[in-house]
Amino acid sequence: MIEVPARPYPFSLDPARTALVVIDMQRDFVECGGFGEALGNDVTKLQAIMPTVAALLALFRAKGWPILHTRECHLPDLSDCPPAKRLRGKGALRIGDVGPMGRLLVRGEAGASIVPECAPLPGEMVIDKPGKGMFFATDCESLLRGAGVTHLVFAGVTTEVCVQTSMREANDRGFECLLVSDATESYFPQFKAAAIEMIVAQGGIVGWATSFPQLKEALA
Ligand code: C5J
Fold first, then answer.
1. Can you say whether the dihedral through the CA atoms of 174, 178, 168, 68 is positive or negative?
2. Active site includes 24?
3. How many CB atoms lie within 10 A of CB 119?
4. Helices (H) and strands (E) in the chain, counts
5. Facing residues of 98 across strands?
6. How far apart are CA 139 and CA 128, in angstroms?
7. What pTM was estimated for this model as a whole?
8. 182 classed as catalytic
9. Residue nearest to atom 6 of ligand 1 (CA)
10. Cα–Cα nearest to 178, from 6, 3, 1
11. 60 DSSP assignment
12. Helix (H) or strand (E) run with residue 185 in it
């Protein structure tokens, strides 16, 4: 086991059973003209973590450890998008509407793709998920269990929505979860900080948090 300095106490990582999960580093959340901006957010905040997520991907690739990327998106007929999700909010554009990067949050559209800096390589797992959590209506669990994975290192966007939801789902399924705090971001700095505090509180009720430099040094 490898000990990674973390909050609320060191995270014991099993090098033979650890996967990196990169949540929703999609153009729709990170670039202007996508779903995130349609909701009224300043998407430039999220762009700051792209080099750190890319470095984290490079670290796992160098180790040969498994990597799973998720994309939040829906079937073109939106049959997997409940009206309660599609109709939420008062923005001019909704899921499925046409924006500058194609239909918002629809599979196969430019906006639903992962930003080139963090793009999956052949052989890496890629999951399209219709919900905020990575386990809802996906085969994530069987993929990870099939690969013998017991420990998950999390990165991606946004911290308090899809990252936190996925970590909570993973924690409930018995995975040991570590969030890399400088490889995740929110449109709302105070929500990012609060989400990390919620995760590590009460003895790590959802999991652990570390920084990329701490993880990199521990794995060196
Ligand atoms: C949101 C996500 N924020 N990937 N999705 O709607 O966090």
1. negative
2. yes
3. 14
4. 9, 10
5. 103
6. 10
7. 0.98
8. no
9. 161
10. 6
11. H
12. strand 176-185
Distance from the CA of 35 to the center of ligand 1, in angstroms? 9
- Residues with Cβ within 8 Å of 149's Cβ and at least 6 positions away in sequence, in order, are 17, 18, 19, 66, 175
Q: Take atom 2 of ligand 1 and give the residue whose Cα is closest.
A: 162
For ligand 1, is residue 159 a contact (CB within 6 Å)? no
Residue written as token pair 């890399």: 180
43 touches ligand 1 (CB under 6 Å): no
Active-site hit among 28, 81, 129, 132: 129
Residue holding tokens 């995740």? 184
Q: Tens place of pLDDT for every residue, the chain, 220 residues?
A: 999 999 999 999 999 999 999 999 999 999 999 999 999 999 999 999 999 999 999 999 999 999 999 999 999 999 999 999 999 988 889 999 999 999 999 999 999 999 999 999 999 999 999 999 999 999 999 999 999 999 999 999 999 999 999 999 999 999 999 999 999 999 999 999 999 999 999 999 999 999 999 999 999 9
Q: In this structure, what token pair is assigned to residue 214?
A: 């701490």
